[in-house]
């Protein structure tokens, strides 16, 4: 009696296994710097700058209390509070103004609409550092230096053309039969925006809020330029102030504050990622079942 032959794995199964191995390898490579920072935040002063191991020989939890004390009497709690104010203002400004601007470009009809939309998209080609000098001179004349106004007020004027483009593309993917239905019933553009566009735009709003918060929280250069004083520093510029004040000689506390600076971004993304997924599914079902407008008589 012969043993049953074992079928050799097919090329499809081998390809899936290779893809899984490659994915795991890429994930490990991407996670290694984060894990190394976490491990370095728990190393002693003598061990912090040696080796690439992910396991400290001695867990030094006092690095977190030492780093939280901050720079020149200003604790990292103040830096986190300043970052929260700037990020919250940027999120509110971008969500409100970019959504209104995108609604105008995607749903309203006015002269030179395509031209002005092209101008807005064209600003994406301008490097941030090219605009920094004239913006700095303008804010200096307004007396806004050493305040959070240069980081918040521009967001209230729909200056982030990327999010205008993002929301316009989302609104164009929605069928226009609800617009026609609302206009047939005599709805004004403001009523159309409030009762039709706004409820369907939750996925775009969520994506705008998530990206704005992450980019603003991590935005180092403008915060360093407009908020040079230690007491006004945000988390990224506060880390810079800590490093130049001697933090490089004791990197453990500095790495500990790096870990704490990453936590708000990670928590914000994890908290709102589910909302983004659920609203995308819900709005897709709503758009697929929108009733057709009533025929005009």
UniProtKB/TrEMBL annotation:
GO biological process: what's one of them? transmembrane transport
Task: Provide the protein's localization.
Answer: Cell membrane
Membrane-spanning intervals of the chain: 17-38, 86-108, 115-139, 151-171, 192-217, 254-276
Q: How does it sit in the membrane?
A: Multi-pass membrane protein
- Please state the protein's primary subcellular location: membrane
GO CC, one annotated term: plasma membrane
Q: Does the keyword Transmembrane helix apply?
A: yes
In terms of InterPro entries, this protein maps to: MetI-like (IPR000515), MetI-like_sf (IPR035906)
Domain ABC transmembrane type-1, which positions?
Answer: 80-272
Q: Recite the UniProt keywords alphabetically.
A: Cell membrane, Membrane, Transmembrane, Transmembrane helix, Transport
Spell out the family assignment given in the record's similarity comment. Answer: Belongs to the binding-protein-dependent transport system permease family.
Q: What is this protein called?
A: Sugar ABC transporter permease
Which organism was this protein described from? Catellatospora coxensis
């Amino acid at each position: 009696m012969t043993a049953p032959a074992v079928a050799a794995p097919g090329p499809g199964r081998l390809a899936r296994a290779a893809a899984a191995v490659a994915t795991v390898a890429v994930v490990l490579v991407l996670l290694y710097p984060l894990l190394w920072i976490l491990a370095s935040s728990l190393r002693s002063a003598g061990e912090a700058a040696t080796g690439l191991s992910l396991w400290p020989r001695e867990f030094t939890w006092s690095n977190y209390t030492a780093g939280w004390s901050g720079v020149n009497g200003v604790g990292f709690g103040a830096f986190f509070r300043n970052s929260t104010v700037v990020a919250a203002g940027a999120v509110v400004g971008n969500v409100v103004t970019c959504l209104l601007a995108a609604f105008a470009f995607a749903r309203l009809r006015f002269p030179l609409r395509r031209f002005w939309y092209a101008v807005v998209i064209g600003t994406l080609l301008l490097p941030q550092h090219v605009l920094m000098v004239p913006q700095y001179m303008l804010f200096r004349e307004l007396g806004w230096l050493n305040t959070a106004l240069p980081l918040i007020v521009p967001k209230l004027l729909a200056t982030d053309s990327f999010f205008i483009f993002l929301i316009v593309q989302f609104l164009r993917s929605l069928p226009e039969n609800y617009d026609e239905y609302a206009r047939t019933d005599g709805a004004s553009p403001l009523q159309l925006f409030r009762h039709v566009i706004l409820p369907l735009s939750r996925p775009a709003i969520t994506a705008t809020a998530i990206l704005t918060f992450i980019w603003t929280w991590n935005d180092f250069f403008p915060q360093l330029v407009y908020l040079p004083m230690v007491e006004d520093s945000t988390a990224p510029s506060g880390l810079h102030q800590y490093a130049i004040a001697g933090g490089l000689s004791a990197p453990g506390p500095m790495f500990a504050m790096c870990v704490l600076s990453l936590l708000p971004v990670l928590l914000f993304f994890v908290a709102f990622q589910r909302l983004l997924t659920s609203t995308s599914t819900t709005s897709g079902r709503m758009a697929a079942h929108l009733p057709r407008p009533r025929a005009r008589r």
